[in-house]
Records
---
Amino acid sequence: MTPASALPLTRDIVLIGGGHAHALLLRAWGMQPLAGARLTVINPAPTAPYTGMLPGHIAGHYARDDLEIDLVRLASHAGARLILGRAEGIDRAAGRIHVAGRPPVAYDVASIDIGITSDMPEVPGFTDHAAAVKPLAGYAARWRDFLAGPPPAGAQVVVIGGGVAGCECAMAMAWRLRREHPGAGGVTVIEAAPAVLRDLGARARAAVLAAMQRLGVTVLTGAQVERIEAGAVVLADGRRLPAAFVLGAAGARPHGWLAATGLHLTDGHVTVDGFLRSITDPAIFAVGDCAHLQTGPRPKAGVYAVRQAPVLLHNLRAAVGAGRMMPYRAQADYLRLISTGGRSAVADKHGLSVAGDWLWRLKDGIDARFMARLRDLPPMPGPDAPELAATGAKEGAAAPLCGGCGAKVGAGALGAALARLHAVPRADLLAGPGDDAAILSLPGGGVQVLTTDSLRSVTDDPYLMGRIATVHALGDIWAMGAVPQAALVTVTLPRMSPSLAERTLAEVLEAVSEVLGAEGAAVAGGHTALGAEFALGLTITGLMPEGRAPLTKAGARPGDALILTRPIGTGTLLAAAMQRAAEGPDIAAALDAMATPQGAAAAVLAPVAHAMTDVTGFGLAGHLAEMLRASGVSAALDPGTVPVLAGALAAAAGGHASVLAPENRAAVAGLAELGDGPRAALLVDPQTSGGLLAAVPADRARALLDALHAAGFAHAARIGSVGDGPPRLQATGAVAQGRGPALASGATMG
């Protein structure tokens, strides 16, 4: 029998949005993936908020991270591609989803779970002077900033909208202000209708209103907002309410781009049948708050999205040929648990109501169990180890092979192999193996540099991987001070159908062309193949500006300052991610840094630098050691000044490291004194698309750093200095022994 992993990919299932139903689907898919189907999820951020805990966060009962569903970790568990971008349209005729800032994403079947928004742009001044309860990120950030310093004495909070969400948030804010800023003013809820909390039964409404009264929350009904100004909300009847913080919780509505899809909508929501399919297009499904059930519509509540997840999973499988459709049967009613500011709640179901602290504990337990399902992911079994194996084989397979530059051959083995190389001498080959790129003379006196590089995939997003691999390969060209000219691209795809191969290649080549084109270079050709996994390589040429010699690793001079253009830590973070021990936002930030070109940084450094290289597989210490050997000098490195990607230091402290790290440390053992601890570990961490490392005149270092920061390289730093030979690398400062402050963290590069 053919194993599932050997079957080719033939169908694309794309999840638009990271809502509750899609998050649960990712968890279930990882436990039982469908052979031949490629699963993709598109979401603007690496995490998605669990809105059921929002009032508790606003009241101060939960930290911000407690609400976050880590989509990076869930996608990894599911073996799904995660595309970080905002969907903004669907071309159903072409089967393409438009995503801001990247090429369209193809689908055979798609599902929409993007929730709703409570933004109120139709109210003059709202965008400038108010926050919307959804999306959560903006509200949470503004509330945090509001609380950061003591609000002005008597500062008022105004909530626009008297539904359950608005009243819950009003009570949460009133509770928080009473505890942390007792001098602040009260909270006022404005509702255009004659009454608030109209969706609740009479008893529950009365209980919630009593809780609001105890917290001093004022309710204004029949009040229409005319406009919002700095420090005030102006009503249609002319009243002007002082407001230091304004929250919009009224008029929740679907995202506007759905109207252009051609799908049948009900009040802006995608109308779906009993199988959760659009009644217009059976290739489109919709769940959660953005969907409207054609038969038996239900309120917009998370409980329905949660219960739609298993039906959606079953029907997406059926839509690509695996089984028959299953109908979704929504429950008639559900238990509403309304937080009342403190650790108490009101329950409402079938018109019956009860209140008390024990209901808060019930709600807290329900929320905790839901989040635990999405955080405590079951371990997936690896391939069975053979009973018999050659000596050392099982030990060598103990850790999974890293992607990116963490998968390259170690410096020792590479150096030994190159020492046996018998190259045919050529007058036009000015420099061959040993530096970042080969240097060739051209007829007429020009100089060309030539490099090649190949990476195992570090992300399942072909477009993002295309950008990373291209930026990584260009590092050698930039390090030589050359201008990129042309590239040959080698793409190896996992087994897939011709249609999926075409889609994937289009995404890869679009990314490669974008990065090269921005540098004035072009794709000149290449090669494709099908293999066991996705891999991407580029061979690139560059031309030296007239009158400028190529920069090499040689040339560093005593007294030079050492400048690094971007943070380190990619190998450690990727290794931790393989063990589900890294935070999704940290991985997303690392991938973003890897995909950011450094041509502008090279343009700043190359005219001034005495020597330059790019930091890749051998780590910062390894590549600096190569520069020291080539230049015949020593260096002092202060690890405390080395910029580090967010999360990398914690991952290193937790014992996570790339499989190449031990070889990197061994390769510099006779040259470098790095100390111990996580900071020292990161110095030998293999980098993918790492920063440029330059030896520059010390008196120019400050001006160069200012120029790099102005060019968007906010974390560029001076990390050490060059001294007299013989070649030696000394880590200095308290941090070299594992003491001192944490290294600076950086999320993105310019």
---
Amino acid sequence: MEASVAKATALPLSRTARGRRLADRFATLFVRASGVGVIASILGILIFLLFAVWPLLRPPVVAEQAPIHVAGRTPVALAVDEHRTHVATLGLDGVVRIYAQDGNLVLEKPLLGPEEAPLLRAAAPSGDSTFVATSADGRIRIVPISWSVRFRGETREVEPALGDTVTLAPDPAGGALGASTARLDPDSGRAVAAAQLADGSIAIARRELERNLLSGEATETLSRSVLAPTPRLSALVVDRAERTLYGGTEDGHLLSWDLRQGEQAAPALVDAGGSGVSALELLIGDRSILVGQRDGRVSIWFPVGSDGPDAGPAALTRVRDVAPFSSEVRLIAPSSRNRSFLVQDASGELALYYATSGRQLWAGHSPAPDAAALAFSPRADGAYLADADRIDVLRIDNPHPEASLTSLFAPVWYEGYRKPSLVWQSSSGTDDFEPKLSLTPLLVGTLKGTFYSLFLAVPLAVLGAMYTSQLMHPRLQRFVKPTVELMASLPSVVLGFLAGLWLAPRVETAFTGLVLCAAAIPLCAILGGATWALLPGSLRTRLHAGTEVFWYAVLIAAGLWVCLSASPLLEAQFFGGSFPQWLLDTFGVRYDQRNAVVVGLAMGFAVIPIIFAISEDAFSNVPPHLTAGSLALGASLWQTVTRVVLPTASPGIFSAVMVGFGRAVGETMIVLMATGNTPIMDWSPFNGFRTLSANVAVEVPEAPAGGTLYRTLFLAALLLFALTFLVNTLAEVVRQRLRQRYARL
């Protein structure tokens, strides 16, 4: 009977144990799978960011394609359409020929009549779809080329056509012209041609075209001016706006004329150094010029203004040199899409550069060593070189030439700047704008916002957690701790909204009182402790331990009210009635209403609950026998807290600070709404900044997918990822060492 009962009871027990083992195994596997899933997701994010960023630093690819045969008709000027379906050529025979990409001749038109003087030279100005032909009779012809695009279903067709030729005569007497250049605005019909005459003077011929809005008739006005003689020029180029004329001499000098001064324009002369100038071209925007010399040097120049109150006009300045060639520079072809350019020398070496950074992106041997013309396709995805019997074609895959470690993190000398600078400016209103994508101001702004927020949050949160855990009455603990933790539930967008629209104006009007509060609050706390100690012992024994916090709160609130109320009096007495104006007049520092102080207050308010909660747990988890032993040996409560509890809880406190650091680094909405969101390099608390996270939030909606800005934003996200990872790793190492150090207590 007893055996049967035991057997009956053992069966359910074994089933229960088996079920528990299964549940335990399932829970173990689930926890492991969850941990592996978290690690895998983090690695997946890292790999995705790396794949998105890698194209920024990938070297360009330059590959030869099938050439276009021109049957011995050597072109001396080339022009390419945007889609690289046709190439236009002009030879010294005075015939414009346009070939399709497959080599078929689709258009042929002579420029010269049977009795007209032959051509001396021809060129295709960079950025323009025109040919400029200089003839032996002192005339310059400008031939516009149009590339009409239409679609037949889903098939794109490009139809090339030649416009009306504009003829200008810098030398009406028909003398031979030296170095020459010309530009044509196809929209307005305005044209300009400049050339050096036999006596060394510079003749400028202009054509203005006015159209009657009612009848549509056009009235042509021709004008001519002559500038003072100069040394013999080897190259000449004029900008599209017809404001500045640049020239290079055979003895190695650069000249520039301000054409707005008319015939009174005097050339500004600078020494280019080295040998004579052999090639001269303008970069996109017409502010920077590329100078090639006979000794193989290539340099970038643009006007730079001087500092100081007596600053004169901007002077043409040699900004940087690129890797030199071994022989004379023959051809330079700048891109009309960005600041990259191609250079070929007399030995047939060809190289691709980026002007802003001065980097050599690619170098190799040209397929046409004796090329007479070099053209960069409008989209910077191809190059064309004219040889005696063919046009060699290169495919260029270089989508991010402006991105490099130097341009992303080091100072760069941009056009219009007086010195190298760290600048973030991703967009502008003009097509020739150069993006400035330095991440250093954003990284500095991230650290700046984090510093000012932790400067407020760490002392308040850690000391508040220590007081709450060790000194406050348990009844108050049950109220204070949940209240502080509830602060973490406030949406950051609400905090940013309040900080930007409500807090920032009040901080501006009461800044001196706010500074006074930093000294008044500790004094009020000390005063509270001193006055509490003066109370009779019989009265204090009737009160619960920790209730003195109410007395402290009253004194601190009174101190805050007095300091903020006294702010107008302090400004009137010591700062002339306005602290921001005094700051500007005295130190030249501008006070922005939305600045680092406002961010520190708002973001500190958001970080305090996180640091407080983790620190309070660290204090509360100190073994009770440590505090009891310290008190039993005669130490006071304050000595026990500061010399026993605080060191033992230091690993948890350090972790709390690091978690708060990560929270501050990744904060977006508060920074976005409470600062001017200006990416500047300044640690001053009186101006704004822009962080990496806020920059990603602002720029991503406007960044074209796959573009340089798009991938640079992913790089910013990767920096945030790496920064957080490194800080957390360092925090864990330090925490473990602190834990081992105080584990023996």
---
Amino acid sequence: MTATLSLPKHRRSAMMRRAAFTFVTLIAHALACPPAVLAAEAPPWSGEHDDAVLLARLGRTGPALAVLDRLHRQHPEDAGVTRDLIAIDGWAGRDGAAIGLFTTLPQAPQADYLIEAVALAYRHLDQPAQALILYRHGLAESPDNSRFAAGEIRALVDLGRFAPAILVADADLRARGERVDVLLAAGAAASAQKAPVEALRYIDRALKRAPANREAMHDRLLAIDEMGAPQVARQLADDHPGALNTAELRRVDGDAAAALVRWGALDPVSEEQRFAASDRAIGVLDGLIAAWSRLGDGARGDVLRARFDRMVAYRDRVRMTEVLAEYDDLSRHGANIPGYALAAAADAALYVRQPETARDLYRRALQSDPSNAEIRLALFYAYVELEDFDAAYAQADFATADQVVWLYLKGLEEPLENPDRATAELAAADARLYGDELAEAHRRLAAMAEAAPNNTRYVTALANLYSARGWQRRAAEEYEISRALKPRDVATEVDQARNSLDLRDYRQAEGELADLKRRFPENLDVRRLDRLWQVHDMAEFRLNVEQTLRSSNNAQDGTGIAIDARLYSAPIDYNWRIFASEYIGHEQLLEGEGTITLRRSAAGAEYRGRDLVASVEGTVNAYGRGIEDTLTGAVDGGRGGARAQVAWSINDFWRIDGGAELFARDTPLRALGSGVTANAASTGLTYRASESRKVELGGEVMDFSDGNLRTSLTGTYTERLLTRPRFSLDAVFGGAESGNSADSRRAYYNPRQDAEASAGLSLNQTLYRRYEFVYDHHLAVTPGAYWEQGYGGGGVASILYEHRVEIDDAFEAGLGLSVSRQPYDGAYENTTAMLLNLRWRL
């Protein structure tokens, strides 16, 4: 009947079955009474009754029911009219009316066809429990009736009791043989249980018994579609016209397009072809959406589903703005967007740096699919982007705890590792990496890599951890291992290139980046690496300003200011930069001595290589008591100088520094005011175990032109006490000692011997971070003790507090305040300093 075309699938199939069944049962009803009896007992209205039944057989249920309704009202005692009215009510979809009439029948055995019609009406009204009672009652009276057996199975399916339905079907098939009705019902049960292969086996057995059965062919095509072979189903449907209605054909075509979308997410045959399947899917979906949109409301559901699938294809094709535009349009029109399409929109939002939107969309997607491991992991990354590490930790840890370690598959003697559990464990370890809890991340990742040394995901993750801890050389080795195991992996290649940049292996980094940009221009990590390279390739301006406030009788001189500006060129031949600098130091000397100003101009070159950083510069130094004359160069006493510095990184842990300077910039300004200059040489040794522990030792010799020789030794030990996301606390222990060959009767502060020891805390906290924008503050409190020969010892203390901001990788600045108290020649002095520094890539 054409009227069935607008009904849901289960309703259409039932109507087809009901039409055929009613036709047969009406004939059976008529044949149940011999002609002689009919002639003898036929009431006067029997002709109208027979005509109405004939109209119903011809499909004209409306006129037939009009007649039967009237006859039933006029002759309610006529059981034949009542039974036929019940059957045709069910056939016409008047299920409530059929059930209502059935309940008025006397408590007596009823014909099989009537029981089945009413049971089917109960199923149509979503009352499968009542249907099940009738089917089982019918089986008790007619155990060989296959329609009752099939009805019991289908009612169990309606109740969601799939496994019992299969058990009932198999038991019936063993007991009574291969009956088509039961086989098709068993196929429906298997299909409802998401076992289309099993469903197809039952349906093929039915077709073997009844090759021309249209319902069996119909169910077979849908089972093939559910198996994930919609293209095959469509081809068979074309070979069997009429087996599927137009709505079902749209469903198969939609499934075929969705399969193309899924194929687009699989590993492609080559990198160059990675979007080919997604492009084909988008093209097919565009055509289906255009064609189905012209069909009106009847195809609206199919159009929506195709648009949802196209959102996923857009996402896989990295057409993220189109994903979001589609989502916005669907939302405006009130569409009920499924979880997988919400997840695609969330991925797109995360790609375009809308992490709040992504978070909310992932949460909505998880409401419809709470156990989806991919969406759980994606939500974790949204939390990371939002710097919500409490939620990120909880999400990763919950995902880990919610997954079993091993999968026990039928037919395998040994269990398999659950990949979702492994992914969740890796995310939980990465969460600590992103939260700067590097030691904890190390513990987790090392255990995972040791358990699965050939797993490239673990090897790369461990290499990333090494790089974050400052072990770039060790990381490089792990990246090479990962590349040997999986040569073409974009994530590993990006991380390796970034590590090469950190190692100052600039040629290799540039080559790796160029290759990645050619192959994966849309990849966010590649774009981020490209930005880092662009920043590296810029010129650089640095500025440091210190305003110091002291009393005018301080042994270290009074209030002063120091300004140091330095401009570096962009890199030349990868490793070289030239630079120029200007330094101005101005200080109030002791009462009655006036002021002193130093202007130092410098130019030089710097080399930055994998293990070596070195620079050399020439200086021109002008100094005098008149600030204006000094700054304009109109003073006597200016002289040339030079400076050389070198730092050699032996490995990831040890570094040696050295330097020498003619006309040392650290010469006290008060000494310059008296015409005394100095040359200096320094050396240093640093051991950095990780971000958690560092030891620094340094020594300097300064040779003054007045014959004084100053030597000094310094040492610092830093130990991480606490690390939390966006927060760290270090203990800092320091010591210093200096001695001068000349006595203290100099024009500058010159203790014969002194020493200092300190122990303090350094706190760093990120107040706000969003991608490249970072705003943090730092507090260091350092109490200690100081001793000076001839004056004894005393306490010292200093407090430093500063704010820092980083913007877009290219600009960072800090503003701070330092307060200290220390004895000089036995008298305590207070010093307050305001600090400004910035670094700007141009």
---
Amino acid sequence: MGDRTEIAGTMDASLIAPPPSFADPARREKLASAFGDVDGIFAAFRERHRIPGVAYGVVVDGELAHAGGVGMRDVAVGAPVDADSVFRIASVTKSLTAACVLLLRDEGRLCLDDPVAAHVPELAELRYPTLDAAPMTLRQLLSMSAGLVTDDAWADRHLDASHDEFGAWLRAGVVFTHVPGIAFEYSNVGYGVLGRVVANVSGRPARAFAEERVLAPLGMSSTTWDAEAIPEDRIARGYRREDDAWVTEAPLADGALGSMGGLATSVRDYAQYVGLHLSAWPPRDAPDEGPLRRSSLREMQQLWRIGPTFMADGDADEDEEGSDAEPPRAGRWRADGYGYGLTSGLHEAFGRVVAHSGGLPGFGTHVRWLPDHGVAVIGFANLTYARASVPVARGLDALARAGGLAPRIPNPSPALAAARDAAVALYRAWDDEAAATLAADNLFLDLSLGRRRRAWEELRERAGACIEVGGERLAGSLRGTWRLRCERGAVDLTVALSPVIPPRVQTLLFERVQGDGEGAGA
């Protein structure tokens, strides 16, 4: 019943590239040099927005490398915030619920394309907005594409709804703004339904399943859904601001909607969960220690449904734009949307970015990590809907300014490296027989051997002999471009291997770099 099939056999070793790795030996030191700036960013955020307390942390390579707190976790007693203060994290909870669904999927106990009603009987008679609508699936709930109407304001005040009450709502029907599967629409009720799926399929309350299968293996002993269980000397109390004063928000009890936003945790504890997600990168042959498969963690972090610019909206603080005290941001967003319990996007400076915000009466939270950089920033605040995404984003910008956010460098497969070397040898001394041995069956149909030889002769005459090879730019382990430094300029060499075994060269391009200067140093 699961989505996965185990594949027997092994891949040709020549096609397997070593995992990407960090090239800068001073990377950790450069990141650490920015921690003082991160402290200042969160302190300024807390002061500017008059927040009782803010806790934050920087995770590097799965470890909490730096953490701090400013302000008070409890105003009445003046108790300070630190990395062990326990905050409600609101919708940042959602990825844990998604992880539980994928755990059950990986065990073959459900399929992500199952109709939701197969696991939640209360929805068996659900009416859809049109007669041609297909039943909503678990995958659609996970990716916020089931069409259920956005419900933030309503859901935040119903976190403590009983399971019987929630069941009655589901039997009465839920409200759609789209038919399932055609558009993004953020739904807390949808994640409440997923919590019910976890409970019904596992035979245990969703929170108990999550505690046993995820939290306990990660050692997250300070993480709970029960606000009353948080120790008095560690609880971060939630506040709203009224008439220039902080007013305590009474915490809502855990209930049927706890799976959408009821979790409470500390920066130190939550760093373990963030570290789990970072550990999924890069894909590799090392033992998969869990508690969730690395492949499933990567699946959660993919962009499955294009949505509004979640992360871009959170980065800008209109009151602070243009301030001389605030350095410019490192880059802008290309696209983002929703994965499984996580937002996911592409950033022009950072590449892949994964994140989520949370907001409840009394709290505002945000976490953001860079899978290819092994770095995350966490921010928790105890003020209603505090925009913790702002200092988190600026914290990453500070790390980038320190020079520590260089991504892992990919490696070519042995087969591609061998093809590159053979192509460089062809540039240095063309040989028809060597070219034919290298070529896939399409290569000389696309451009004949004779024409390729003549094009090489013209290029070789203009650029001269190759002095050295560098400037590697890989588009995967089987395709890449290299810069050849030649006597009278530079030449870009592009090689791509064919999709069948044994792989041969399907693309071979020598292109003189336009505008490149003359001479050996060009």
